[in-house]
Amino acid sequence: MIQELRPDYQILHAKDGMEALASLTANPVDLVFTDIEMPIMDGLQFIEQMNVRGGGESIVIMSAYSHFEYARRAVQLGACDYLLKPIEEEKVTQTLLKAESKYKTEQLASIDMLLARVLEGASSPDDIRLLEKSCPVGKGGVLAIEFKRPSCPGMPTLIRRQIMERVGQWSKEQGVRSVFHEPDRMELLMAVLTADADDSSFWPNDLRQRLQPVIEELSCKLGIELTIGAGEPFYAWGQDVHASCERALLALQARFYHGGNACYTSMSMALRSHAAMMKLDTGLLTRAIQSGDKPAILNGIRAATAHVLEKGMPSPEAFKLSLAASIHQLHACLSEKGHAIKDADLHEETFLRSGDWTELWEAVEHWVACVTDQLDNRKHKRNESIIETCKSYIESHYAEELSLSLLAEKFHFNASYFCMLFKNNTRTTVSQYIIQTRMNHAASMLRQTTLKVYEIAAMVGYKDVKYFIRLFRKEYGASPDEYRHLSATR
């Protein structure tokens, strides 16, 4: 019956348990049907001996006995099914389907475990032999498939399955075989493609172009960003597979620099595995930051970045770490000059968390804006403080000789810059402010004292009375005497 249901199965026969054990030792099988009643060794004893010997066969008991104890004991010993005679074809079919499903699941798990070891470069000779038996290879290659995880919990497993199905279908269309390994990292999937040795079209130069429609289809269908890295071809199971895996993972790094939804190869993308060493011109950048020159700061970082990338693209983590370390040094340099940057650590962490080149450069631009704004705000506050001090000085020394040049020198500024600084903060010039201060004090004296006009003029810093009167009239619209008279009559 089994031969009719499964013509492609190779079936072995034995007349008793002892003969069956000997046959299994010489010819390992996947599924065993055994009767309870047999000479020399009954079915239950046979299963016990199989368990002692070890093996992964699925065992089905056939018996005319419907007694519960037989079934219970058979299950305890590891039987996967218990068929009562007379045996119906439908029951056998169901049993075969169940056993085949179990075999397929176990085989996939076994292959996944073997693949994990060979991809990691930790395979044993036994692993290689098992892989050669399960997946013969004349040529092969490794694909590293990465997708950006959706926000929906539980989705990555489903997405993995759909990617495996579609890539498996694609590989069949290409005339090659595919097996998959699912690493612990949910967003990553490894595919090993194999073909016969005489398949000259395998791992073609246009692999990226052939995979692009599949990537676009899956990206659109699943709402994900999908990137595939392709390693170099290998010709036998072993260390070359590990090397192909390493190159495929390296190729994935191109996504950071060039974006996802594409297939990359490590050879075509000029990737490199060694560390990146970025050197910023701290002197130039410090001066640019102090002057608030944002374009100069960005250009300085671009130049350092270009110098690193012209030698090939390092791993994103190494590149981000190098950038963060360089910015850290710049922060230290600024701090030494009295410009400690607020939240410096947070900015450096943002660089390290960047998922791609766009995010990283946005983080750099944000950092430049924050740093220059911080220094600009501090400078503005410092300038405000200086101007307030200057105003207080004028208020206290209005009767003395005062001028723009004298005040600029006192506060250690260039005269023209100090004039601009003063006007930006007070909306008036230094000279005008001095005059206004003196006229305010003169007006107060005119209202509150009987001092002569020439005495008041001298007391507010003017030796020339006529000049004082002219300035007073311009400020108040009346001469000092007229102002005193008007004030007295109010």
Order of helices and strands: HHEHEHEHHEHEEHEHHEHHHHHHHHHHH
Spell out the CATH superfamily of the largest domain. Reverse transcriptase/Diguanylate cyclase domain
Distance between the first and last residues' Cα: 129 Å
CATH topology grouping of the largest domain: Alpha-Beta Plaits
Give the CATH level 1 class of the largest domain. Answer: Alpha Beta
Number of strands: 8
Low-confidence stretches: none
Number of domains: 4
Assess the beta-strand content as a share of residues: 5-15%
**Shape field:** rod-shaped
Helical percentage: 55-70%
Protein name: Helix-turn-helix protein
Domain Response regulatory: 1-100
GO molecular function: DNA-binding transcription factor activity; sequence-specific DNA binding
Modified residues (4-aspartylphosphate): 35
What does this 3D model show about the protein?
60% of the residues lie in helices and 9% in strands. It is of the alpha/beta class and 490 residues long. The longest helix is centred in the C-terminal third of the chain and has 40 residues. The chain folds into 4 domains: 86 residues, Response regulator (Rossmann fold), CATH 3.40.50; 156 residues, Alpha-Beta Plaits (2-Layer Sandwich), CATH 3.30.70; 91 residues, no CATH class; 93 residues, Arc Repressor Mutant, subunit A, CATH 1.10.10.60. The strands form 2 sheets. It has a 5-stranded mixed β-sheet with strand order 5-6-4-7-8, with helices on both faces. The chain has a 3-stranded parallel β-sheet with strand order 1-2-3, with helices on both faces. The mean pLDDT is 84. Helix 3 runs parallel beside helix 4 and helix 11 runs antiparallel to helix 12. InterPro entries: CheY-like_superfamily, Homeodomain-like_sf, HTH_AraC, HTH_AraC-typ_CS, Sig_transdc_resp-reg_receiver, Tscrpt_reg_AraC-type_HTH. It comes from Paenibacillus methanolicus. It holds the Pfam family HTH_18.
